[in-house]
Amino acid sequence: MEKIMFMPEGSDQPAAFYVLEQTKIRGISYILVTDKEEGDAECLILKDKSNSEGEDSLYEIVEDEVELQAVSKVFEELLEDVGIEL
User: Distance (Å, rounded) from C-alpha 30 to C-alpha 59?
Assistant: First the structure.
């Protein structure tokens, strides 16, 4: 499982997450990340908001309920053994 580091806005301490899966819907990239490598954990669905010219990726947490439900269903299908509770 790939470990990635994020620099939250307004913080000088990076946050580490593990990437469970990634997908692209209508040209927008999404990643499903967790804070633990194994076991039950909190997950976030992040949306890539960076432009193609930037070197660093810019992700934001998906908070829109309709978008969150739609993307979580895609991730549930990709990860057959993982249940996502909203």
Answer: 9
Instruction: Map residue 40 onto helix, strand or coil.
Output: coil
- pTM of the entire predicted model: 0.82
Asked whether the predicted pLDDT for residue 62 surpasses 60, the reply is yes
Q: Residue 22: inside a domain, yes or no? A: yes
What's the domain count of the chain? 1
CB atoms closer than 10 angstroms to residue 27: 5
Compute the distance between CA of residue 5 and CA of residue 42 in angstroms, rounded to an integer. Answer: 16
Encode pLDDT of 25-48 as tens digits.
Answer: 999 999 999 988 887 788 899 999
Is residue 68 a part of any domain in this protein? yes
Judged against a pLDDT cut of 60, whether residue 86 lies above it is answered with: no
- Residues 6 or more apart in contact with residue 26 via CB below 8 angstroms: none
